[in-house]
């Protein structure tokens, strides 16, 4: 995802659903751009701010609290935009994609990383077993009851999202939002999905 954005040498990037700042800081390491990370969660932004404060980033990272459904930026502000694990958490993925595209300059790159459900039966069965049993147990052993609950949530959340919004729907939704030349690839035996394209001229 980062590579698709960095290759365009953007000067200003918006990282939506930036969470604890992993993608935000990767963008800062990979480009010379200024990056704004936005997330709904104050806890996530606190974690991101601790990482982004490193002198290595030359104060190029700004963190903002806000909603992806209503971004506090003018039209065509950013040269590029990334978002990670976002669409499962919004009520209207199509509307959110349109809002994301709105703040990107014509021709600017947009890229995302999401979890996915493997399409091949053998990998889907393995993925189901992993997300329904291994993740909750690993969460319990490493982080206690709270992390077990996170592990139990993740697999059903991903499955439910793709029942309502399969990959074909997602790609069409990007195009309907005003994003051209949309491409995609799965990763991790189908457990991950990277999508990228260009803001329509």
Task: Name a few traits of the molecule.
single chain, alpha/beta, Rossmann fold, seven-stranded mixed sheet, 7 helices, 7 strands, 44% helix, globular
How would you describe the overall organization of this protein?
It is a single chain. It is built from 7 helices and 7 strands, in the order H-E-H-E-H-E-E-H-E-H-H-H-E-E. The protein is an alpha/beta fold. The chain has one domain (2-118, 165-199): 3-Layer(aba) Sandwich (Rossmann fold), CATH 3.40.50. A hairpin with a 4-residue loop joins strand 6 and strand 7. Helix 4 (93-102) runs parallel beside helix 7 (167-176). The chain is globular. The model has no long low-confidence stretch (mean pLDDT 94).
Give a quick precis of the structure.
With 201 residues, the chain is an alpha/beta fold. Helix content is 44%, strand content 26%.
Q: Cα distance, first to last residue?
A: 22 Å
The SSE order reads HEHEHEEHEHHHEE
Proportion of helical residues: 40-55%
Q: Please count the beta strands (DSSP E, at least 2 residues each).
A: 7
Give me the secondary-structure topology.
Elements: H1 2-6, E1 12-16, H2 22-30, E2 34-39, H3 42-52, E3 61-65, E4 78-84, H4 93-102, E5 104-115, H5 121-143, H6 145-164, H7 167-176, E6 179-187, E7 192-199
Parallel strand pairs: 1-2, 1-4, 2-3, 4-5
Antiparallel strand pairs: 5-7, 6-7
């Amino acid at each position: 995802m980062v590579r698709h954005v960095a290759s365009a040498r953007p000067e200003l990037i918006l990282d939506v659903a930036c969470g604890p700042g992993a993608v935000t800081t990767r963008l800062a390491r990979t480009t010379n751009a200024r990056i704004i990370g936005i997330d709904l969660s104050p806890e996530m932004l606190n974690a991101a701010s601790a990482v982004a404060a490193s002198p290595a980033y030359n104060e190029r990272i700004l963190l903002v609290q806000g909603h992806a459904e209503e971004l506090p930026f003018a039209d065509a502000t950013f040269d590029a935009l990334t978002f990670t694990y976002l669409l499962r958490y919004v009520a209207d993925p199509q509307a959110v994609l349109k809002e994301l595209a709105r703040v990107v300059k014509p021709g600017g790159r947009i890229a995302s990383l999401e979890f996915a459900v493997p399409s091949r039966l053998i990998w889907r069965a393995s993925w189901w077993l992993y997300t329904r049993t291994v993740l909750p147990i690993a969460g319990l052993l490493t982080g206690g009851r709270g992390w077990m609950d996170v592990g139990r949530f993740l697999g059903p959340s991903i499955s439910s999202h793709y029942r309502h919004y399969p990959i074909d729907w997602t790609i069409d939704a990007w195009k309907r939002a005003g994003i051209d030349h949309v491409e995609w690839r799965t990763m991790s035996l189908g457990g991950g999905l990277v999508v990228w394209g260009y803001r329509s001229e």
